[in-house]
Amino acid sequence: MSIQTVKTDLVKNTTHKVVIPFYIYAALSFFVATILLFCSANSFTQHYFQPRTLAITHTMALGWGTMIILGASHQLVPVLIEARLHSTWLAFLSFILAGIGIPALLISFFAFHFGWVAVTGALLINGAVLLFLINMALSIWKSPNKNVHALFILTAAFWLLITTIIGLLLVCNFSHPFLPSASLHYLSLHAHIGILGWFLLLVMGVGSRLIPMFLISKFHNNKYLWSMYGLTNGALLAFILLFILQSVSIWYLMPVSFLFIALILFGRFCYLAFKQRIRKNVDEQMKISLLSITMMAVPIIFLAILIGFVLRSGNQGYKEILAYGFSIFFGWITAIIFGMTFKTLPFIVWNKIYHDKGGLGKTPNPKDLFSAKVFKTMSLTYLAGFILFLVGILIINSILLQSATVLLVITSVLYNWNVMKMLLHKPLIT
Questions:
Q1: CB 33 within 8 A of CB 56
Q2: Per-domain boundaries in the chain
Q3: For the chain, what is the radius of gyration of the CA atoms?
Q4: Full-model pTM
Q5: What does the alpha-carbon distance between residue 312 and residue 130 come to, in Å, rounded to a whole number?
Q6: What is the DSSP string of 320-374?
Q7: Does residue 211 sit in helix, strand or coil?
Q8: pLDDT: is 261 or 315 the higher one?
Q9: Which of 89, 105, 143, 352 could form a disulfide with 121 if both were Cys (CB 3.0 to 4.6 A apart)?
Q10: Distance between CA 367 and CA 422 in Å, rounded?
């Protein structure tokens, strides 16, 4: 596969008008999340269940991670199934509903008031996810070329809908209790369906396609992919069953072991794709994407520690829970978004500007649309900020936490600057 083929594959189906708004929204959400983090660093020395940590977590989960994945999926799924997106209007409507619903919900979390604004926000988000799921399902159904990567994305979208439905029920339960237990009891169920079913399953499905594509690798192994799919869904179903049965903590080691094996297989898949690559030089974007794969082990380590805490003392370590959540949303999810943003968005923008100008002169490469120096600086401030903040949580050091948030704010500014540089690019033909 040539570089030009990769470019064509990534941009040939869905209009940029559908995809780019999601990227912009996500970039601004990341900036907002880091500002909230800067203003709320001391909250991470306290219990995890409080307004500011809830607001930051959902800004990262919905505004940052989910929105950029929704946008990228509208571009990627047609490539995977070699067919057009079923409906651009459903995609637009999904963006509008989520774009309105997310801030309504986040404001409610920050104010810790779960009235009609929170319920309306949650309903709009559910509507956006439902439209996305329908759009993906119909696109795949109509295509004669169905594959396991598309199944990963479709299944992940289903789990996302389950996550948002549970979230809606929890929001309603805060102000008008109707569930058997308080909303706090169900938070781990809500969170892990989203983390494992939506984020992890989708990252595995998309990563196992994009990483070999951008490395221009010959490696492919369907057995690995089906095993990863089965183990990840099996781990999630086992967790849900154990939660419903209120099983003792030691049984939770079973889904954790399934998950650990799935991650090993995913790491092995990516390693073999790297070893069998045709392109020997690996750019900075791919390096940070590959780094994000190793960072997936960090939350698993904290999860095992948490289970150990419960088994030993019957109590949960709030520091470890905060570190667990932070390592997921500011760790591997953010790292893989960084890498994939600057691998996919340049092609989308390049196609938007230069697609109809072929043969009129020499055009710039997609990688020239953003600043490599800014990307490298962003990567360094991100890694430093992430590590310092994680250490700050574990040793409960406010000075370290506040210093780390400065680095993460700088990271978000640099990310937004580079994204806007691409989007505001003017045609250059020589």
A1: yes
A2: 3-423
A3: 21
A4: 0.89
A5: 42
A6: HHHHHHHIIIIIIHHHHHHHHHHHHHHHHHHHHHHGGGTTSS----GGGGS-HHH
A7: helix
A8: 261
A9: 105
A10: 10
